[in-house]
Design brief:
Pfam families: Ferrochelatase (PF00762)
Distance between the termini: 42 Å
Structural class: alpha/beta
Subcellular location: Cytoplasm
Shape: globular
InterPro entries: Ferrochelatase, Ferrochelatase_C, Ferrochelatase_N
Strand content: 5-15%
Radius of gyration: 21 Å
Bound molecules: the ligand C=CC1=C(C)c2cc3[nH]c(cc4nc(cc5[nH]c(cc1n2)c(C)c5CCC(=O)O)C(CCC(=O)O)=C4C)c(C)c3C=C, fe (ii) ion
Pathway: Porphyrin-containing compound metabolism; protoheme biosynthesis; protoheme from protoporphyrin-IX: step 1/1
CATH topology of the largest domain: Rossmann fold
Organism: Coraliomargarita sinensis
Order of helices and strands: EHHHHEHEHEHEHHEHEHHEH
Length: 355
Amino acid sequence: MSKQGVILLNLGSPDSTDVADVRRYLREFLMDGRVLDAPFPIRWFLVNCLILPTRPRESAEAYSEIWREDGSPLILISQAQQAAFAEKLDIPVELGMRYGNPSTAGALRNLLDQGVDDLFIVPMYPHYAMSSYETAVVHLMAAVREQKPDLKTTLLPPFYQDPGYIDALVKKAAPSIKEGNFDKLVFSFHGIPQRHLVKGDPSHDHCLTTPDCCNTCHPAHATCYRHQCAMTVEKFVAAAGLPKEKYMLTFQSRLGREPWLQPYTDKTLEELAEQGNKRVKVMCPAFTADCLETLEEIAMQGRDSFLEAGGEDFEQIPCLNESPDFIDFLAGKVRDWQAGHYETEKATPPAYVER
Ligand SMILES: C=CC1=C(C)c2cc3[nH]c(cc4nc(cc5[nH]c(cc1n2)c(C)c5CCC(=O)O)C(CCC(=O)O)=C4C)c(C)c3C=C
Ligand SMILES: [Fe+2]
Ligand SMILES: [Fe+2]
């Protein structure tokens, strides 16, 4: 008899708002070759000589604005998701962060200590990006190799257009949008460098080769973050019945000088206000838990710049967090796995025949 377990993966927060803790977290985050993908010596120079001397202080201040009495919102919300999830299932559920604590290796160890030998992996990212979904999974699989190479594992694919996820998003937004009392709903996704899209295109012949590449059927979309974000928006507005003039898709949180996915959220919010849009709602579907990027960058900085540019009413619609519809949706995925609806990763290669 095998023993099943679930691991939820997210990116993580610093342990506290102390500059030293934020520096340690940023070093781990930015030395990840899937986040800053320059060759190691250049990455080392960028991180240690250009970013770490100043950014930890600025980031620590930003974290202090959103920090709760008992810790980081991202960690606390993720733990609440874990608890809500565990209540729905009768198997162990652990939470592992890519950077910082609780660590992915520790979460795996806890599951193995409980005798788990069949693991369902749930990256809490609806969209595939090298710097979110991929790095979290690769990091876990390195821990699996170290701790129990023969562990049976099954991976939940990105769920960016799954009707259950879209339905949970629509229900979350409903109290804010159902009266139609807004000029624009902005879907703001965490950005990535444009270069990452091209790098992640397995066909080497699609992403960003034409302006509307994301609307053309192509196998590259299995790993195309921009396509997957656009699909989330398309499915959402179809389900919510929103006309084209009522919404926009933008990308936030850029870092460095190279071009990231556009349009940029910060510039768009100012432009919207300048064009006379008085009431704006923003939702951030790339995050399943509220965090620095939603609570500080959007709900504080975004609000300030929108109001300063002439806007009057601004709302950041909360992420899915521990909303019952979202937890039910994920619990349904676990039940599908338990019912054998996912293929296992084990495949027997054909015998090698010498010619
Ligand atoms: C959709 C999810 C995310 C993608 C894609 C992503 C890409 C990405 N991020 C950075 C740089 C930073 N991100 C930081 C924090 C952070 N990012 C995400 C999600 C995605 N990042 C989360 C959930 C968080 C954690 C927020 C929290 O509440 O703790 C940070 C640290 C904070 C700061 O100093 O701004 C950095 C730095 C890059 C460069 C990148 C793509 C290449
Ligand atoms: Fe990020
Ligand atoms: Fe694309």
